[in-house]
Sequence to fold (331 residues):
Amino acid sequence: MDKLRFALVGAGGFGAGHLAVLSSHPRVSLQVVCDASPEVTKPLAGRGIETTDDFHVALSRDDLDAAVIALPHYLYPEAVCMALENGLHVLKEKPFARDLDDARAMLACARRAERVLMVAGQGKYSPGFQHAKPIVDSGALGSIFLTRGIITYHWGGAFANDWRWRGEKAKSGGVAVIDSGWHILDLVHWFRGLPERVYCSLGSRNALPGDYDVDDRACLVLDYPDGGVGNIICCFICQPSNRQVLLHGTEGTLDITNRKVVLHEGVAENSQVTTFAAEGSALEPQFEHFLGLIDSGAAPEVGALEAYDIQRIVDAAYRSAETGEPVTLRD
Fold:
């Protein structure tokens, strides 16, 4: 197959992982890397990679087929739509957008341009969750009546009061639910689909001193159409680090992390416990999925529809936190 010519916009932070994938993939010709930081671009230029600090320059080139975009949330609508309108397929980092309006705008751009738009959700591609999905889909757990999801970690930027754009809700859309929580909501949605209602509490005041107007922790309750209930905890200012989903069903329970799956089959003293250890990367299989969408001629929005549903959950969570009441999802 011919190589696909890529731009990478945002090569620092998590973008460095995408850079590693693009730099080593046999089907990729990395044409240009864009980042605002000279500390990121200077070493790349030294390796002979063309660089720029302006995504407008990177995405307006005529020698590109696709782009991977990892930017602050408020820049996504402009950058993603510019890439799509220039005829590029786009893999963008999570979250989909700051809000539903931004997400809808990018979906509309993809449909008009007839180019694939995929929103990254690398947690689904980690080995533990990849191993768990066929078990859930097989019905081995029976009817799932309780789902628990947790993501916790200690982000130094918050403790140093170095929030930058993330600490401004107008730019980030929030943090605990839409940014940190996106990872765990993406995984829970992958197993359980859309809830009907969402209740969310963000706490009554900031947990840390500092200049920020975003959520720093969140507890969500999800009500599902089949009668099941879910509980999600998101916090990036506590320890220990944990990313875990537990699915409790009438026939068994599945305890899932990135690299381990524990299946409890049966009930109480008659239960059987099986542990699966899993090793491997998440970014490579995610990128292969993106290439597969391009190769198959998939509809432009296919890679973004799950993310749009998660955006609807996020939207309902923030509306619930404002009203103090459960909120149904918007169409």
Remarks:
- Residues 30 and 58 are 12 Å apart (CA to CA).
- Residues 123-282+311-328 form a domain with the Dihydrodipicolinate Reductase; domain 2 fold (CATH 3.30.360.10).
- The longest strand covers residues 237-249.
- The two ends are 40 Å apart (CA to CA).
